């Protein structure tokens, strides 16, 4: 007897993603006929090894060509919308089919937002309660969550590279490389940096922008906009980005004598010469790259801001 598998769904403006919970699926047949997706396969699902089937009639027109990929754990199906836009639900039926559920795996923005909010609130509260002393132990109290958030945020580069979101790969890459370099190399590898107040300024400036940016993306996923939030997302970076890069530059400069002394990451030259090239030479080059990166991303964000507010004005007319 054919059973129904569990199906999770998510959407982007141009695509629908279905994740069918079937392990080792075989004899897979997926096709769209008159806007109805038909799926059948043999595999191991919620009711053991069996034949599983389902059909879904989409809310709005989709292209008849579907693509799918079967992994050991699931079958991933991608369907392309004919018209770009956000659907309020997936199917035409009034009631959602029982086997269908939203796929929250696509919502990394939510987790990253929670992480950065925790950082921002925690640092603010500690500053009010402990005062200046809180500047000296930011790394010990915050770094684990910051590592987690930054690793999650690195997904943004993949999203940009695979065209999941409409954003440039280069600005996203600059942002990711820039932050991870400071977090993992400058702060992460040098214990001497952990108690410096600069850690507080870097973490505070990073998280201050993200508490506006991620909710803005999250609302975008639901095709919703809150004007004040949009304004904040496209304005707050103006003072924060240069200040953030300045704080990062201070961290790099403070780390140079430590790298020189410890010889960490220095490149040993041959025994005949008997010396090594200090990592600090790379850091001097990096300082120049930082301001180049700042210029590229400042220009990018300025263009995004103009595009966003120009489109809004045009829509309003
Ligand atoms: C090549 C390597 C070289 C290495 C050199 C290294 C040098 C490094 C130097 C630079 C160091 C910088 C380190 C960083 C410091 C700081 O962060 S300081 C603190 C302040 N920081 C900021 O203000 C920057 C914040 N960051 C950003 O804004 C982004 O990361 C960005 C990449 C710089 C720009 O974002 P972008 O996505 O391009 O712009 P948006 O307008 O926001 O988005 C475009 C559209 O895409 C949609 N979208 C994007 N992401 C998502 C998502 N996750 N989910 C859903 N949708 C998303 C977004 O909604 C937009 O769509 P539309 O609304 O339809 O336009």
Note the topology.
Blueprint: E1 2-3, E2 7-11, E3 15-20, E4 23-33, E5 36-45, E6 48-57, E7 62-70, E8 75-81, E9 100-102, H1 108-130, H2 138-153, H3 155-161, H4 169-187, H5 198-221, H6 227-233, H7 237-262, E10 267-268, E11 276-277, H8 279-316
Parallel strand pairs: 1-6, 2-9
Antiparallel strand pairs: 2-3, 3-8, 4-5, 5-6, 7-8, 10-11
Helix pairs in contact: 1-2, 1-5, 2-4, 3-4, 4-8, 5-6, 5-7, 7-8
Bound molecules: ligand LEDWP2DD.
The site of ligand LEDWP2DD has 35 residues, from helix 3, helix 4, helix 5, helix 7 and helix 8.
Question: Which key terms come to mind for this protein?
Answer:
317 residues; 50% helix; Immunoglobulin-like; five-stranded mixed β-sheet; 8 helices
Describe the overall structure.
- The protein is of the alpha+beta class and 317 residues long.
- The chain has 2 domains: 105 residues, Immunoglobulin-like, CATH 2.60.40.790; 197 residues, no CATH class.
- Helices cover 50% and strands 21% of the residues.
- The strands form 3 sheets. Strands 7-8-3-2-9 form a 5-stranded mixed β-sheet, with no helix packed on it.
- Strand 2 and strand 3 form a beta hairpin.
- Helix 1 packs antiparallel against helix 2 and helix 2 runs antiparallel to helix 4.
- The longest helix is centred in the C-terminal third of the chain and has 38 residues.
- The protein is elongated and about 75 Å long.
- The termini are far apart.
- The protein binds ligand LEDWP2DD.
- Ligand LEDWP2DD binds next to helix 3, helix 4, helix 5, helix 7 and helix 8.
């Amino acid at each position: 007897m054919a059973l129904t598998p569990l199906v999770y769904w998510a959407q982007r403006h141009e695509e629908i993603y279905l994740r069918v919970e079937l392990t080792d699926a075989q004899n897979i047949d997926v096709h769209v006929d008159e806007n109805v997706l038909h799926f059948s396969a043999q595999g191991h699902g919620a009711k053991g090894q069996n034949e599983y089937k389902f059909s879904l009639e989409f809310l709005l027109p989709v292209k008849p060509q579907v693509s799918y990929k079967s992994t050991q754990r699931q079958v991933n199906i991608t369907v392309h919308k004919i018209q770009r836009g956000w659907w309020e639900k997936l199917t035409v039926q009034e009631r959602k089919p029982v086997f269908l559920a939203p796929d929250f795996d696509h919502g990394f923005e939510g987790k990253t937002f929670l992480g950065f909010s925790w950082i921002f609130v925690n640092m603010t509260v500690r500053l009010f309660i402990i005062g200046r002393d809180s500047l000296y132990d930011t790394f010990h109290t915050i770094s684990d969550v910051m590592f987690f958030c930054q690793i999650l945020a690195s997904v943004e580069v993949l999203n940009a590279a695979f065209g999941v979101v409409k954003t440039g790969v280069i600005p996203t890459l600059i942002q990711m490389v820039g932050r991870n370099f400071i977090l993992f190399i400058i702060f992460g590898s040098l214990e001497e940096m952990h108690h410096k107040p600069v850690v507080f300024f870097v973490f505070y400036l990073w998280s201050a922008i993200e508490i506006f940016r991620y909710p803005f993306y999250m609302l975008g996923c639901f095709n919703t906009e809150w004007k004040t939030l949009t304004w904040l997302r496209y304005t707050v970076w103006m003072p924060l980005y240069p200040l953030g890069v300045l704080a990062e530059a201070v961290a790099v400069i403070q780390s140079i004598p430590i790298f020189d002394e410890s010889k960490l990451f220095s490149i040993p030259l041959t025994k005949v010469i008997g010396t090594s090239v200090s990592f600090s030479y790379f850091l001097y080059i990096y300082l120049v790259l930082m301001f180049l990166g700042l210029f590229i991303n400042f220009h990018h964000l300025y263009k995004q801001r103009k595009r966003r507010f120009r489109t809004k004005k045009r829509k309003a007319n």
